[in-house]
């Protein structure tokens, strides 16, 4: 009798559970063990802002595959509270520690998938360990944060970092009736996003009475005698009150112990993988927020951790670990989020990024309507294009508006995948009916204005 | 002094006014005359259902460029109530008749653009000339229909034809408080649309208390002594009451007098044009609902008259008539409409069309959610794909759901333009956030299920 092959998956959220499920479907004879350090697997962490906003009442709604289902229906051996701490690639085993019993267990493997995700690191600011200073990364984080709001104690929320998580949470906090202040270290919100888009988002924040301090660094947190946060001090000496702080200053790939065993990191600091999600070490794959992906616009490895990419990469890693032939071509950097009444989206490179990657580029921006101007509720939509001056190819698109942004950006994402020129985009046969688009879709208007900019 | 070149444009709605505006912008020295047989130019006829529904109060809101603006701001010599009746290509003139004075005027031209549009023909059914039997094609039609509803007299509307105009109008009539019955000659609604989509639309009609008779032909209309319609008799002898009838059985290109002067029609019966919108006769262009367009999936000429195509073709005809170098590659058959709570869309070929064009094809259908399942208001979305079994290429996509259909279809439209395989589509980096999509967008789920169907 042939012994069953064993796949060990480290991390049981998006990439990990996609990988485990796929491997079992591909090869039902394979033993699949998932080591998850928290008490939850397979949850939609992108739903956390809506859970905190109380639009979703029960955190169990965010769980896609409960452990019981994973075990009984999918035959996946899920081990909760098992934190992997060491990989030995030559002897092919992983060591994990049980977070309660502190027992150390060794799991031999035939194939290993590293899907350790990313961590929301609290920056080393004095006072950051005060009570009621949160990050929002895991379901555990979300449950803790919501429970504090539910207590009715907090009144003034302060968000450090004006990226998309910060902006989603600004809305969530306002829904919960809190005053909201945001502090952003950079002179602009949303990282590398272009100024035309940011101006509209900032205007929305103002309308919703969110105070925004840009170009402002938190130098310390103040706490009361009970150790509860009461405010922040900015570098310029200003003091802002807060009884709830959310630190949303970005995330970092969790790669420390993978790196320790010789798994190679790429230029971004995340695990380097090929199209098959293989790392440099035989039989070890990586997927999800701990791994890089190829950026199809630059052709270079990129680190843009998102749930969609994690799921795709996990699926490919699982497929291949189980003997299949999956591949993941890469990403074009598509992202969308909602903040208050606005949908904000991007794909490809922004101006700053095109500059950084050495493209000879031009840009064009337009504002038009999401639907026929005469249709009730028609609202504005702004599009900014970044284009390669040398060959007329689209490099990136950014978009903001109240409606019709989220899937419209996907036309540009599809265009980027196909390396379309702006002229080709101007020829697209896009859907039109008054409730959904003007007869010249804003995409086509942007492409036409883009063409003019290219010809200058 | 060089004499000004003169462009004459026949028809002043979408294609015609796009052409005229473009020509003037391209060459401000060109004289541009637009002959329009009705009293209106440049209106959004696709908005007529919403005007009749009284969601748009004033018909002037549908007018994009009023004649005064066209004349004063764009320098276009608009002649209302001028019906072109004859073209003489050898002597290069057009003859028009003024609909009131009956005066016949001859307009010499250097360049001519035929944008005569399409007509909603009333079929030759006994009694069709009774009062209160309408078509909905021109703004004049819409004003007459709405005015009758405004009178408060009609109670029971009957729509002949269950295509997209019929379905948009079913909603409009229900909004106005009318009972609605639809009679469709074919065994199915929506022409060549696949059954999975139609089943969902029919279910919606039932929910909204619209009575639908399929496989039913109207043999005559009944009128009272005053000549007002009172009902229809079906071929099987059944009688349906109605005091308002809308005939929405499709449209035909208006090409009679163009054909008479030797302008060649294509296999579809509309004017044959090349990528430059040139007809077979030198210096005569055609654009819009009277013309064909190349279907980029079949590679053959097609007749799918829509406002978007009309505008694009008009622009190219105007550009070229004024000495530029415009081109219009073609269409992929993208369309979307709203009926009650549903968005219904398609692009490329349906099963029936793939069959007709001799493709070796397979199909796949999925139903998933428009947004994250845990997000409030998540609703179902159904996608059907038609795929080329020989090379895995997408041939068409159809989609229906309450939200997120209209621009999602454009991803498939963009895929068709780029001749993408379903495997490539499964690799797309599409936008994701809980309010807008599940982490696996329905597009990706459909592509993955499609891949399985292709491998069978």
Write the layout of secondary structure elements.
The structure is a homodimer of 456-residue chains.
Chain A: E1 6-10, H1 14-26, E2 31-35, H2 48-52, H3 67-72, E3 77-79, E4 82-88, E5 93-98, E6 104-108, E7 111-114, E8 118-119, E9 133-134, H4 139-150, E10 156-160, H5 164-175, E11 179-183, H6 195-207, E12 210-213, E13 218-223, E14 229-234, E15 239-241, E16 244-247, E17 252-253, H7 256-260, E18 284-286, E19 293-294, E20 301-302, H8 307-321, E21 335-339, E22 342-348, H9 351-356, E23 361-369, E24 380-388, E25 394-401, H10 408-417, H11 422-426, H12 442-455
Parallel strand pairs in A: 1-2, 1-7, 2-3, 7-18, 9-16, 10-11, 10-16, 11-12
Antiparallel strand pairs in A: 4-5, 5-6, 8-17, 13-14, 14-15, 19-20, 21-22, 22-25, 23-24, 24-25
Helix pairs in contact in A: 1-8
């Amino acid at each position: 009798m042939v012994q069953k092959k064993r796949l060990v998956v480290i991390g049981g959220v998006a990439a990990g559970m996609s990988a485990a499920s796929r491997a079992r479907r591909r090869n039902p004879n394979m033993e699949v063990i998932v080591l998850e350090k928290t008490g939850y697997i397979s949850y939609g962490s992108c739903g956390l802002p809506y859970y905190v906003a109380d639009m979703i009442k029960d955190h169990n709604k965010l769980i896609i595959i409960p452990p019981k289902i994973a075990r009984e229906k999918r035959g996946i051996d899920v081990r909760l509270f098992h934190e992997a701490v060491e990989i030995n690639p030559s002897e092919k085993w992983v060591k994990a520690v049980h977070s309660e019993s502190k027992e150390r267990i060794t799991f031999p493997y035939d194939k290993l998938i590293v899907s350790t995700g990313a961590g929301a690191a609290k920056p080393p600011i004095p006072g950051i360990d005060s009570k009621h200073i949160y990050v929002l990364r895991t379901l555990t984080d979300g449950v803790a944060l919501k429970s504090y709001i539910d207590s009715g104690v907090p009144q003034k929320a302060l968000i450090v970092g004006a990226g998309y998580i910060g902006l989603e949470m600004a809305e969530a906090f306002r829904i919960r009736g809190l005053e909201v202040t945001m502090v952003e270290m950079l002179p602009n919100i949303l990282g590398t996003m272009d100024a035309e888009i940011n101006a509209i988002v900032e205007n929305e924040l103002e309308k919703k009475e969110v105070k925004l301090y840009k170009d402002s660094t938190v130098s310390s947190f103040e706490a009361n005698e009970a150790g509860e946060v009461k405010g922040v001090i900015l570098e310029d000496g200003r003091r802002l009150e807060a009884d709830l702080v959310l630190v949303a200053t970005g995330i970092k790939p969790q790669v420390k112990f993978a790196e320790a065993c010789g798994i190679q990191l790429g230029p971004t600091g995340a695990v380097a993988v090929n199209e098959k999600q293989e790392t440099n070490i035989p039989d070890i794959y990586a997927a999800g927020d701990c791994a890089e992906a190829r950026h199809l616009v630059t052709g270079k490895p990129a680190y843009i951790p998102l749930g969609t990419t994690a799921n795709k990469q996990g699926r490919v890693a699982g497929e291949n670990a189980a003997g299949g032939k999956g591949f993941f071509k890469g990403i074009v950097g598509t992202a969308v989020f909602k903040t208050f009444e606005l949908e904000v989206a991007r794909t490809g490179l922004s101006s700053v990024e095109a500059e950084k990657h050495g493209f000879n580029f031009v840009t064009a921006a337009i504002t038009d309507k999401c639907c026929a101007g005469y249709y009730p509720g028609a609202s504005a939509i702004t599009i900014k294009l970044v284009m390669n001056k040398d060959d007329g190819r689209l490099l990136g698109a950014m978009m903001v508006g109240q409606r019709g942004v989220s899937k419209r950006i996907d036309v540009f994402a599809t265009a980027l995948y196909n390396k379309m020129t702006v002229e080709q985009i101007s020829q697209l046969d896009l859907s039109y009916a008054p409730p959904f688009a003007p007869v010249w879709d804003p995409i086509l208007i942007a492409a036409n204005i883009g063409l003019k900019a290219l010809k200058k």
